[in-house]
Structure formats: structure tokens, C-alpha cells
Amino acid sequence: MLESCRFTLRALLCCLAVAIPIATSAAEDGIATWCRFDLPPLFIASGPDEGKGTVDLTASFIMRYLPQYEHRTQASNIRRFEAQMRSGDQAVCAGMQKNTDRQAFMLFSEPLHAIGPPQIVAPRRHLAALSTFRGVDGSIQLPNLLTDHTLRLGLSSGRSYGRDIDNMLAQHKGQPNIVERSAAQRMSEGLLQMMALDRIHYTILFGSERDAFMDQPDVAQADLVSLPISGQPRYITVHVVAPRTPWGERFIERVNQVLRANWNNRELRNLIAPNGARDKVLQDWLRELDPNRPRRP
Known about the structure:
A five-stranded mixed beta sheet has the order 2-1-3-10-4. The protein has helices at residues 2-29, 54-64, 78-87, 100-103, 127-131, 142-145, 163-171, 187-196, 207-212, 217-221, 246-262, 266-272, 280-289; strands spanning 31-36, 70-75, 91-96, 106-115, 119-123, 153-156, 178-181, 202-205, 224-228, 236-243. It has 13 helices and ten strands. It has 297 residues and is of the alpha/beta class. Helices cover 42% and strands 20% of the residues. The chain folds into two domains: 9-114 and 237-289, Periplasmic binding protein-like II (D-Maltodextrin-Binding Protein, domain 2); 119-228, Periplasmic binding protein-like II (D-Maltodextrin-Binding Protein, domain 2, 3-Layer(aba) Sandwich).
């Protein structure tokens, strides 16, 4: 009986010896708070489809492969999230574009998604005025358009539209014809409604954003048109981001490991490009995004 008790005690101590390092590691990794914006169809922050945006679902896939963190989600906006990044909070996001300002305080994963370039979106009644700024290829010359103070541009504060457009907008910041809307809830929807009310004449959106709201009566009545912006790439990559801290470095490296190991996982592939097998452009995107492909230093 005594020998049996000793054996049981030794077995218990062995279990504890194994369990303690695991618990310490999990405690060290801590909480990862995934920020979600109100930006359908990429993020869906509320309503019956909450958490079912394209980026939302991809983030959920990654969370499953990072069990060493306690994952939480948080409805946020770009300004608030950037403030958390600057403070070094353990906040992360699965859908951010690179720009020079963000790289100073954010770490970026391998490319996660690719989206088509931003476009000028405007009610058809303003098409003639905007067309005077078209180049020979039919695309809008944005630097010239921004000098016309009779046409008001509406933007979401803190939003990135890609490096080139961000730089163009920075050169005209503070002009009375550029109206910045707080990057709060209903980011794209709010701008589309402002156009329907003629408070702004045009905005800059990615194509999928405009399409997400086309069934709403006030947006549909505006009879929107989209115009390409000159000099834009075929697509823009978005990434998982974390704060530029030691914790953030570990987190991004683990995200990259998940992406590399699961790049050909059918579930992940369908989340990133559900029509990739049929769409040549998406096939090109997938080749470009592949985290395992050789890249120039």
C-alpha cells in the first residue's frame, strides 16, 4: 500500500514537472486582442453576419493555429488601433496595408490578402466634371483633381489607400475641398451616404467596399460610377500587424510560420481567394502572396 502511494506521488510530481513550463509559456504569451473595423466585406463588426467578413474569417483560421495565446476580439477604428500600436499594447489586426508611417511602430507579416487598387467613386451626375481630369488611358490624374477646390473629396481619417495615394493626399492635407470623416463605425457606408446627400462629390474606395452597400436605397439612388486612378498597381497587399515590440516580433514570426505551413490548405486558400481557381487575376495574386516563394531582400 505504501509503495503504491509512493508510485502515485512520483507520477503526480512528473506530471507537474511537465505541466509547469507549458503554463509559464502560455502566461508569457498572454492575450492577443484582434481589432476588427466596421468595413464590409473585409470586416463585419456588428449585425447578424458579425465576424464573417473575409478578413475576420482568415483571422479566425490563424487563431486556431496559435493556441499559446488567449485570443480576444475588439470592435475598433483605425485611429484607436494605431494609438494602441504606438503604446505597445498587445493588439493585432489581420487587414492592414503597409505605409511609411505605420512601419515606424507596426510589424507586418507576410502578405495575407490582395485587394484591387482604390478607385474614385462618385455619383454619375458628377462624371462630366471628373472626366476633365482623365488621362489618355481614361484614368483619373489624382494630383490634378485635388487642385480643383470646387469638387469636395470625402475620406476616412487615418485610412491608408496605398503608399502612392497616401503621399498625394499628404501634399494637399488641410485643403477645404478635402473633408475627413472620423474613422468610426460605418466607415465606407458613411462616405457613400454623404455623397448621396451631396455633402461630398467623390470619395476613394476599394471596389469590394462600394459593392457591399449597393443594395441600400440611398446608395443605389446615387447611381454611383467608379473611375480608375492613374499609376496604381494591379493589387495591394494587406498583412497581419502587431506592435513593434519583442512580444510583437514573436507574434508575427508565429503568424508567418502558420502561413508558410498552411499556404496550400484548402480552407485557407478558399478564404483568401474563393474564386482563385477560375479567376486568372486571383491566380496571379496567389502566386505573389505565397509566403514560401523566394523574394528579393
